[in-house]
């Protein structure tokens, strides 16, 4: 929850390749009090069945920059295994030459101001992603 001296952050992930929330993706939150400062790891969470992280740590007072690290590779590996189990004679990513995700991690860095809430959705596919400031 934000106060006048801190900002707050939330996120969710949608797997647009299947049109569903991405469940079980680990998300780490870091912050720093200025662009020259070192990052401070604050902790993390994992997305729920709706693709949301409802329990990200609070930001410290004085935070100006925030970083969200999404560990998406394990999510796509689990998804591929489910697909392969469902279609044993139709291998996943038959023509791609790769498995999992092309981008195994997604890092999003953004600036914040005290008293504001920042919702940062991640739209995800195995070969690309997009982020934006939501509401």
Automatic annotation (TrEMBL):
It is an enzyme of class 3 (hydrolase). It holds the Pfam family Transthyretin. CDD domains: TLP_HIUase. InterPro entries: Hydroxyisourate_hydrolase (IPR014306), Thyroxine_BS (IPR023418), Transthyretin/HIU_hydrolase_d (IPR023416), Transthyretin/HIU_hydrolase_sf (IPR036817), Transthyretin_CS (IPR023419). Residues 9-134 form the Transthyretin/hydroxyisourate hydrolase domain. Its EC number is 3.5.2.17. Keywords: Hydrolase, Purine metabolism. One of its GO terms (molecular function) is hydrolase activity. It catalyses: 5-hydroxyisourate + H2O = 5-hydroxy-2-oxo-4-ureido-2,5-dihydro-1H-imidazole-5-carboxylate + H(+). Homotetramer. Catalyzes the hydrolysis of 5-hydroxyisourate (HIU) to 2-oxo-4-hydroxy-4-carboxy-5-ureidoimidazoline (OHCU). Belongs to the transthyretin family. 5-hydroxyisourate hydrolase subfamily. This is 5-hydroxyisourate hydrolase.
């Amino acid at each position: 929850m934000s106060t006048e001296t801190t900002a707050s952050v939330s996120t969710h992930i949608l797997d647009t390749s299947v049109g569903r929330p991405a469940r079980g993706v680990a998300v780490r939150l870091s912050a720093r009090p200025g662009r020259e400062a070192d990052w401070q790891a604050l902790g993390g969470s994992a997305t729920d069945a709706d693709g949301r992280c409802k329990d990200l740590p609070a930001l410290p007072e004085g935070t100006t920059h925030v970083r969200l690290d999404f560990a998406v590779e394990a999510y796509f590996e689990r998804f591929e295994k489910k697909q392969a189990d469902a279609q044993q004679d139709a291998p996943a990513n038959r023509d791609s030459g790769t498995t999992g995700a092309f981008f195994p991690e997604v890092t999003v860095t953004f600036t914040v101001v005290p008293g504001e809430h920042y919702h940062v959705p991640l739209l995800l596919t195995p070969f690309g992603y997009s982020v934006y400031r939501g509401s």
